Amino acid sequence: MTTTCLVVMGVSGVGKSTIAKRLADRLGWAMAEGDEYHSEENIAKMEAGTPLTDQDRMPWLRNIRDWIGEQDAAGRNTVVTCSALKRSYRDMLRRTSARVLFVHLSASAEVIASRLSERTGHFMPPRLLDSQFGDLEPLAEDEPGITVDVADSPEHITDEVLKELRLAPEGTA
Asked: Is 170 a member of any domain?
C-alpha cells in the first residue's frame, strides 16, 4: 500500500513548522523538519545572508526525498516541511514511491516580513526573503496539492488543509 507524504511548503516565515506539526498531530503521522536536512555549509551560507543556489539545495532535497522513501518503505504516512520553492525541487521530492501532496502556505511579502521581524533563533535572516519570493514558483494546476492563505489562525488553516485534501486522522472513517 502506498503511503502519503504532505510537504508543507512556502517561503521562510510562512508558518511551515507550525502547520506541519498541527497536521502531523491531528493525523497521527510521522513528521520531519526539513531544515534539519540542510548541510552545515548551507546553514552557514544562509546565516551569512547568502541565498542558496540550486546546486546547494539539491543534496538537501535528495535527503528529504530519501527520508520520504524510507518512511514509505516502513508503511508510515508523513508530513515534512520544505520550502520547495521551485517546481524542479518539487519534482525531485516526488521521485519516491509515496504519494506526495504539497500544501503551499501563501502570504504577501509584507505579511511574511512582519513575521520574520519578530522571529528569533532561526538561521534564515529576514534579508533573504526577497530571494525566496524571487525563486518561488507557485503550484501549477497539474501539481498535486493545494495553496492556502495563512492569514487565518493555525487551527483554521489546519482544518482547511484536512478538508481540501480529504484527509482524516488514522483510525477514523
From this structure: no
Global confidence as pTM = 0.88
The total of structural domains in the chain comes to 1
pLDDT digits over 66-99, tens only?
A: 999 999 999 999 999 999 999 999 999 999 999 9
Residue 45 lies in a domain: yes
- Do 49 and 75 meet the contact criterion of CB atoms below 8 Å apart? no
Q: What is the DSSP letter of 51?
A: P
Instruction: State CA 110 to chain mean position distance.
Output: 20
Helix H or strand E encompassing 31: strand 30-32
User: How many other C-beta atoms can be found within 10 angstroms of the C-beta atom of residue 73?
Assistant: 12
The pair phi, psi for residue 9, each rounded to 5°, is: -120, 165
| Pairing state between β 99-106 and 145-149 | parallel
Domain residue limits at 14: 4-164
Q: Taking Cα atoms as reference points, which of 34, 39, 18, 40 lies closest to residue 68?
A: 34
C-alpha to C-alpha distance for 8 and 108, rounded to whole angstroms: 17
Pull the grid cell for residue 14.
Answer: 510562512
Please report how the helices 40-47 and 54-73 are oriented relative to each other, as an axis angle in degrees rounded to 10: 130
